[in-house]
Design brief:
With 67 residues, this protein is an alpha+beta fold. The protein contains two helices and two strands; from the N terminus they run ββαα.
């Protein structure tokens, strides 16, 4: 909440069309790339990241929106 995150997808049904897919996908919208990076680099997220990395594999990609 502190970084203005808006969850657009958290899990849910998927229909993989190409490539490798994951069992769970999450899409989060931020007002800017700077806000997304601030959230990612925050102490709160880094603590959660350490827990996630101990029990799950994943990728995080920050993408600038079309605007």
């Amino acid at each position: 909440e502190r970084h203005g995150a808006k969850f657009l997808a958290r899990g849910g049904a998927t229909s993989p069309a190409e490539g490798v897919s994951r069992a769970r996908n999450v899409v989060i919208e931020f007002a800017s790339v700077a806000d997304a990076l601030a959230c990612y680099n925050s102490a709160e997220y880094q603590a959660a990241r350490a827990i996630r990395q101990s029990c799950a594999d994943g990728e995080i990609v920050i993408v600038e929106g079309a605007g």
